[in-house]
Design brief:
- This protein has four helices and six strands.
- The chain is an alpha+beta fold.
- Strands 1-2-3-6-4-5 form a six-stranded mixed sheet, with helices on one face.
- A hairpin with a 2-residue loop joins strand 2 and strand 3.
- The longest helix has 18 residues, at 49-66.
Length: 134
Amino acid sequence: MSTRDVVIPAERHALYELHRYSPAIRANGLLFVSGQVGSRLDGSPEPDLDDQIRLAFKNLNAILAEAGCTFDDVIDVTVFMVDPQTHFERAWAVVAEFWGKAPYPTATAVGVTWLAGFQFEIKVIAKLPEAAAA
């Protein structure tokens, strides 16, 4: 069995250890990023929904950067949202700040009832640049 090629951002937040997961794993030229939430360094949620989404993207972008990627390298996105009927349009307006220009990645949005105190989570798969994949 091979060892996982884990990517850990410089500012590691407490949730990784608390919930026992890796921020991201490199495999076969792809980067699989765990769901990122608007967590402060101590693991607590950012209370404002818009700021929580921005912080989730900041956390995501830190992992992508550590792996030599940007959001432009993202090929698949899964978003989890508590009460999407109420918050989807507002959340998607904030998401647009980070999404970039077309062509866009594939996307799936899932409504959930619980995210451990968070309202929004984003999970992605990115293609590693050739140098980072080697």
